[in-house]
Amino acid sequence: MEQAIGVIDSGVGGLTVAYELMRQLPKEKLIYLGDTARCPYGPRSEEEVKKFTWELVDFLLEKNIKMLVVACNTATAFTLQELQEKLDIPVIGVIQPGARAAIKFTRNNNIGVIGTEGTIRSEAYTKALESIHSSIKVNALACPLFVPMVEQGILTGKKAQEVVESSLSPLMEGEMDTLILGCTHYPLLKQTIQNVMGEQVTVISSSEETARETSTILDVHKIIKTGDVIPVHEFYTTGELEIFIEIAKSIFKDPYLQMVTIKKAQLGQTQKT
Amino acid sequence: MEQAIGVIDSGVGGLTVAYELMRQLPKEKLIYLGDTARCPYGPRSEEEVKKFTWELVDFLLEKNIKMLVVACNTATAFTLQELQEKLDIPVIGVIQPGARAAIKFTRNNNIGVIGTEGTIRSEAYTKALESIHSSIKVNALACPLFVPMVEQGILTGKKAQEVVESSLSPLMEGEMDTLILGCTHYPLLKQTIQNVMGEQVTVISSSEETARETSTILDVHKIIKTGDVIPVHEFYTTGELEIFIEIAKSIFKDPYLQMVTIKKAQLGQTQKT
Predict the structure, then answer these.
(1) CA distance B261 to B263
(2) Do B228 and A104 touch (CB under 8 A)?
(3) Which among B22, B25, B33, B72 is annotated as catalytic?
(4) How many structural domains compose chain A?
(5) Which residue, A222, A233, A238, A271, is CA-closest to A255?
């Protein structure tokens, strides 16, 4: 099926999901929309997040997408169920894939989750884990310093190591064997987080897992792309084009970077005309 | 949804998939049917495998299952597509989940696959991998000694190590970073295979991955079980009850073993009466 997979995010965090989609599903075309102008969604009310998310979804529906990936934890927590009920295309969020992967990996049913304050406060991961497996123990921790650090490009090295070590210290005493990176920015810190947690802990990237499950869902719905035409992906931002391009360059490596066009999005245009 | 997940296999190999389903989806009830009397399916013709598989499926459909897991590589290779087209419940096989997991894990696009001679000859894993990702290099190898060794209970120790080492030696010169265990018996040898391949190779259990994707599909189709009633699983064999019980005991540990009833199945009974 030639139609694209739509990906929405509050800004640039979802680019790690897009990168994994390109890597794991190289035949599929993506149309990504990041609402950088109104990022972050974390501190906003449920009503506002729903309104903004539907604006992003409407923009992508106009482009005839075959599936929707909600690559933002806050938007997933507040809108996934509604989107799944109201849209007639498959919709996946970033929370459930990370939860299911963690249940697969854990051997002692002790799972840690780190994320933004909003995501941890929403208890979305805890609820997702417990809905599948009642005897999972969840240790959830907000790491408010990680997103600003990633956005400054501090991913490895002494400074990153120090911040990650001190942030994760409340988790070090537990018996968890699996840690979910419950924020789409965190995969960029995966190596540093793995170093700090030690090899006995499996670190789960919800971006990798969401791409993996997108692959499953395309197969189950029989809408996977066949043929070998190399796709040209369309990326849109509601915010500053130059900043978005710089961050995209830092996340996508060749050959993926060559396959992406980045433009400014005008939301609600179709309604106005 | 209170209905059970149906699991079919040519014999006892699928019990590793059943174990993973119990572990990862502890609220779900399973009805398992192993065609031990006519095992193995590997050397049989496509026509015969299809006929036998439909007999297993009909037995489970009578029990009103909500989803079907084909926990046998041969049956998956020959019948998955037909089952998905003809049944109005979701159907998953054991090949695609392992392939998708390998694509997620690999970093150099070099993937190894081991399985029975029939599975390797069918090239089912190679086709599944290449349909998603054209530039994956696949190194496939039949390991005919592994199933008899597992069925004799030789899983670790010097003898197991020697057989695994000599069987896998053709793979040791390649650059693969990911190895798919493309046979449902092989997860019982996972530790020995991991020791032989070394830590730099990710070893993928298609049983673990099939259970993980079953979880995804239950969620997507909104047929996941809610509530906390502990299920009693029904297991059936077409062959010798005592042998089946012995093997089930060696695969399931407590508390899972306490949750299983095992009975002899009479195929085609409903048609006869």
Answers:
(1) 7
(2) no
(3) B72
(4) 2
(5) A233
Q: Using one digit for the tens of pLDDT, what is the confidence trace for A150-182?
A: 888 889 999 999 999 999 999 998 899 999 999
Residues B117 and B181 in one domain: yes
Q: Are B172 and B219 within one domain? A: no
Say if the Cβ atoms of B212 and A131 lie within 8 Å: no
Task: Please give the residue range of the domain that contains residue B179.
Answer: 95-206
Instruction: Answer whether A24 sits within 8 Å of B103, measured CB to CB.
Output: yes
**Do residues A99 and A200 share a domain?**
yes
Q: Which of A16, A92, A220, A230 to mutate to test the interface with B (most CBs of B within 10 A)?
A: A220
The answer on B199 and B111 residing in a single domain is: yes
Q: Do A212 and B97 touch (CB under 8 A)?
A: no
Tell me: do B121 and B22 sit in the same domain. no
Domain co-membership, B202 together with B102: yes
Indicate the residue of A90, A209, A215 with minimum beta-carbon distance to B220: A90
Residues annotated in a binding site of B = 9-10, 41-42, 73-74, 184-185
Q: Token digits for A154?
A: 């501090």
CATH code of the domain containing B63: 3.40.50.1860
ipTM over 0.85: yes
Segment B102-135, tens digit of pLDDT = 999 999 999 999 998 888 988 999 999 999 998 9
- Indicate if B72 belongs to the active site: yes
Nearest to A100 among B27, B92, B216 (CB): B216
B104: contact with A, CB 8 A cutoff:
yes
Answer yes or no: A39 catalytic.
no
B66 shares a domain with B108: no
Q: What tokens were used for A217?
A: 């869902």
